[in-house]
Specification:
By secondary structure, this protein is mainly alpha-helical. It folds into 2 domains: about 250 residues, no CATH class; about 160 residues, no CATH class. About 85% of the residues lie in helices and about 0% in strands. The chain has 15 helices and no strands. Helix 1 runs parallel beside helix 6 and helix 5 packs parallel to helix 7.
Length: about 425
């Protein structure tokens, strides 16, 4: 029964992820075409801070809440209520701190005064994203993947319809307002998603004064479970946030124009990476299924099956990556013309593609480490790999490799993660079993 439920939830996640990924790609494609290179350049500059703030305010709620609910140690309503208290505190802190320093971030760090209002719009979306993440955790914990699947798909359809109906009209009036609209629509799409989740909530979930009461132990559990995962993601996003800042600063010192830097960074970040990340929904489904499976095998001390699952996952991830690499090498220009009517990103897409298949090997290795309660090494590796990436990028920029500095540095960071985490996993399996 458990095995059947495991494959059922995995299949639902895979199908939902595939549809959501396809709709998301269509949305990105439409946005890219409508707002043009200038609009995409603005988005590429503020996306790192958006990603960073999202990681902070969601506080790994889906994973943490799902774990606490599945343990049946506390009532679901109490867990959700106390998660909301933490969410409110984090959102208030982030909005106040970033809001007060918006001008500094825009003008000094991002070197673009126009990003100030984009940052303010980002802040408005954060509470809605946080609420959605808490609700997702409730359904994950009760192993109800259908509401998550339906909500995600309908949310993406809602976004697509809104963009088709409004984005071109707003862009014709003001290209800058169209970028604000792209960010601000998250307020309505996340609210729509929460409403869909609400329709699936069981009638037995009753909120009263007891369930809404502050519980110190539940809050401690949420914070202790969330902190390692969040810190790792925050560190990654901090470096992602610093990436364009350092890139712009150093290249401008090399006498490259701001427009040249941001437009080429958009070709790399918005155009090229969006194509290379297309298979990520498959890898994500493998990761979601692999962690509980490996946890079960570790508890049973079944070493042979544990190693076999990892090897098969690595092989499947490698095959997917290599197939996609060949397809991009053969049809990359045609795909860019079909999607963007622009082959300029290919100068970056081609070189990233030669090693990007290695990136997909990180997921099975990290899943195995998570199942073995070795999250700390993932956190350490995140810091080390990103420091090496920034160091390589800065050295190569000095040698006038231009934006190719970032591409080479990314390759170095992926190798560092695979070598450290892969080696540590091998040693850990040998010691624990």
């Amino acid at each position: 029964m458990l095995k059947s439920n495991f494959f059922k939830t995995t299949l639902i996640l895979l199908i939902a992820s595939m549809i959501t990924k396809l709709l998301g790609f269509v949305i990105r494609l439409y946005i890219t075409k409508i707002i043009g290179l200038d609009g995409n350049s603005l988005l590429s500059v503020v996306n790192p801070i958006y990603s960073l703030l999202t990681q902070v305010v969601t506080f790994s709620f889906p994973l943490t809440i799902s774990k606490l609910i599945s343990e049946r140690k506390y009532s679901s309503s109490k867990i959700i209520a106390n998660a909301f208290y933490i969410m409110i505190a984090i959102n208030v802190l982030v909005i106040v701190l970033v809001g007060l320093n918006g001008n500094f971030i825009a003008e000094t760090l991002l070197k673009n005064k126009a990003t100030n209002y984009l940052i303010l719009m980002i802040l408005l979306t954060l509470p809605f994203i946080s609420i959605s993440s808490i609700v997702k955790g409730y359904f994950f914990g009760n192993q109800k993947m259908l509401p998550y699947a339906v909500s995600n798909i309908l949310e993406q359809l809602f976004r697509l319809v809104c963009f088709i109906l409004l984005l071109s009209k707003i862009n014709a009036f003001s290209p800058y307002l169209s970028v604000l609209f792209v960010i601000g629509l998250n307020i309505f799409s996340e609210s729509f998603s929460v409403f869909i989740f609400y329709l699936f909530l069981p009638k037995k979930l009753v909120l009263n004064s007891n369930s809404l009461a502050y519980d110190n132990q539940i809050n401690k559990d949420i914070i202790s479970l969330s902190s390692p995962n969040v810190l790792s993601k925050i560190i990654g996003n901090i470096f992602y946030f610093l990436e364009p800042i350092i890139l712009i600063h150093l290249l401008m010192k090399m006498n490259y124009s701001y427009y040249y830097i941001t437009s080429n960074y958009a070709l790399y970040n918005i155009y090229s990476l969006s194509i290379l990340m297309l298979p990520s929904f498959i890898i994500g489904a493998i990761e979601t299924s692999l962690i509980p499976e490996l946890s079960r095998l570790y508890k049973l001390r079944n070493k042979l099956a544990f190693i076999s699952r990892i090897q098969k996952s690595l092989l499947l991830s490698l095959i997917i990556g290599l197939i996609f690499m060949v397809l991009i090498d053969l049809f990359g220009k045609q795909l860019l013309m079909l999607l963007y009517h622009d082959i300029r990103p290919f100068k970056y897409l081609f070189w990233i593609n030669q090693y990007f298949f290695l990136y997909y090997l990180e997921s099975p290795i990290n899943s195995a480490l998570t199942a073995l309660f070795k999250n700390k090494i993932i956190f350490i590796t995140t810091i080390v790999s990103n420091l090496i990436k920034l160091f390589l990028m800065m050295i190569l920029i000095k040698l006038d490799f231009m934006l190719y500095s970032l591409i080479i540095a990314e390759f170095g960071a992926i190798l560092v993660v695979l070598i450290i985490n892969g080696g540590y996993l091998k040693i850990t399996i040998k010691d624990l079993f």
